[in-house]
Amino acid sequence: MAASIRNPILPGFNPDPSICRVGDDYYIATSTFEWYPGVQIHHSRDLVNWRLVRRPLERASQLDMRGNPDSCGIWAPCLSYFDGLFWLVYTDVKRFDGNFKDAHNYIVTAESVEATWSDPVYVNSSGFDPSLFHDEDGRKWFLNMQWNHRTESFGGAPKSPAFDGILLQEWDERTRKLTGPVKNIFAGSSLGLVEGPHLFKRDGWYYLTVAEGGTGYDHAVTMARSRTIDGPYELHPNPHLITAKDHPEAALQRAGHGQYVETPDGQAYHTHLCGRPLPPHRRSPLGRETALQKCVWREDGWLYLESGGVVPEVTVPAPVMTDAIPEPKVIETDFDEPDLPVEFQWLRTPLPERIFSLTRREGYLRLFGRESIGSWFEQALVARRQEHHSFRVETVFAFAPCTYQQVAGLTHYYNRHKFHALGVTWHEKLGRVVTILSCPGDFPHGRLTYPSGSGVALGDGPVHLAMEIRENDLQFFWRASPKEDWAAIGPALDAAVISDEGGRGEHGSFTGAFAGLFAFDTSGSGLHADFDRFRYEVI
Questions:
Q1: What is the Cα–Cα distance from 2 to 10, expressed in whole angstroms?
Q2: Rounded Cα–Cα distance for residues 93 and 91 (Å)
Q3: pLDDT digits (tens, 9 = 90+) for 392-423
């Protein structure tokens, strides 16, 4: 029997974990940014085994991210439960570059996580990373960081003055509006870049945890407390509860931004995001993942990591004896069901019927060629998270292009300036070809390179494509028939540039690498591609 939690508990792109316990059930909500539907909610009963159960922001009345820039969209949700309802607050960020963020905060509710969630109630736009605290007297308090545009905080290089403290204001459930004065209750520590606030109450103290240091290698969970909800707040003696910023040797880097939770018998845990960078460049293709640390309360009334110090551990004690369910080494879908497999998402649009169908041709995922790969509006790209540093993906599909403006295939994708794609298209001299389109971190221009030149000529019929990623290296393969051997195409490419730190740098991208299927048709004809299979194998 195992009795330990193995971090990260949610591998791959799962940042900003907000944890909520209801009875014996635990839920974690994480950010999804420009990926649709919005917000991932995982469930567990033992803190060891987790299962994705819901993405609640699933229709146009709740969320429309067409036009949202890369790494905008849903930031830092907060999930809570009070008075028979689940409450989810979140930000929809509409701008990234320049001095402004245009961050709009909303609340949705549901009687159960698996139910249909309400339409959103607008709250404010003064900053991002909102949370909702339900006090013992029934009053509700809304928190978010305040964004100050009057600084040089833009272009992927944030400065502390832009992160202008944590705002607190009462939220009136009857009127569904904020009420009373707005108070700036916490400026953060000297580390700066204060964000991600979460409140909880224990033994008459209001405890506040925030994220600081930016979501790169200086990240931290900072803790403070006050006898009154609006402060003043005194800092933790450390003052950071969790951080790896001074420990480059730690297995879990970039640790910060999480939330406290207690088990039914009073054991203490705290979530946080983390990264597992690859040497030698310290890039994190898996993005910001979710981890969980065991904590203890000491006689001074402060929370500490049970392991001592502030550095997060890979293995921590679980609250109960439990078996860890082995993860499958191969995940394969034949697209035989009428719904997209739960591990897949698409980009931005609340109108998925415009970009894919699982019913137009039985047993196939049909992608309708829309705007170019990397479009912020309507691109047909359906993908799943990269969850391992080494893996292989295979697919087979039918596609009959008649112009070079029509391309479909397989991609290792982060955003418009960080992707590698193996596609089938048309060449005026070679006819139908398989070729590579790559944008290896060219920010801000997003210019393509073509590592296989004009490509390799193909005959008619379905085409098999594959990509194999071994840590920092990616190799594409193709074949015309399952009776043939796989043939490598193009050189080994830089897989690690498809990462948070690749291209623009660590504070310029917030999601993670995906493996997926794409189709675009910039002629406007909407030519479709029919994908018969998608296979993800850990190697």
A1: 18
A2: 6
A3: 999 999 999 999 999 999 999 999 999 999 99
Tens of pLDDT, residue by residue over 70-83, are 999 999 999 999 99
- Residue for token pair 């047909």: 380
Q: How far apart are CA 237 and CA 241, in angstroms?
A: 9
Whole-structure pTM value: 0.96
User: Which architecture characterizes domain 4-317 according to CATH?
Assistant: 5 Propeller (2.115)
Provide the 8-state DSSP code for 209: E
What residue segments make up the domains of the chain, in order of their start?
4-317, 330-538
DSSP characters for 117-159? PPPPEEEE-S-S--EEEE-TTS-EEEEEEEE--SSS--TT---
Write out the catalytic residue numbers: 16, 195
Q: Tokens 């398989």 map to which residue? A: 434
pLDDT over 50 at 435, yes or no: yes
Is the Cβ–Cβ distance between 144 and 164 less than 8 Å?
no
Structure tokens at 182: 């707005």
Closest to 135 measured CA to CA, from 200, 224, 231: 200
Q: Give the pLDDT of residue 2.
A: 56
* Rounded Cα distance, 520 and 381, in Å: 9
Query: What architecture (CATH level 2) is domain 330-538?
Result: Sandwich (2.60)
**pLDDT score for 160:** 75
* Cis before 248 (ω within 30): no
Residues contacting residue 203 through CB under 8 Å, at least 6 positions apart: 301
Helix and strand numbers (H, E) in the chain are: 0, 39
Q: Mean pLDDT across the stretch 444-463?
A: 96
The CA distance from 277 to 285, in Å, is 8
Residue 523 tokens, joined: 């002629």
304-314, pLDDT tens digit by residue? 999 999 999 99
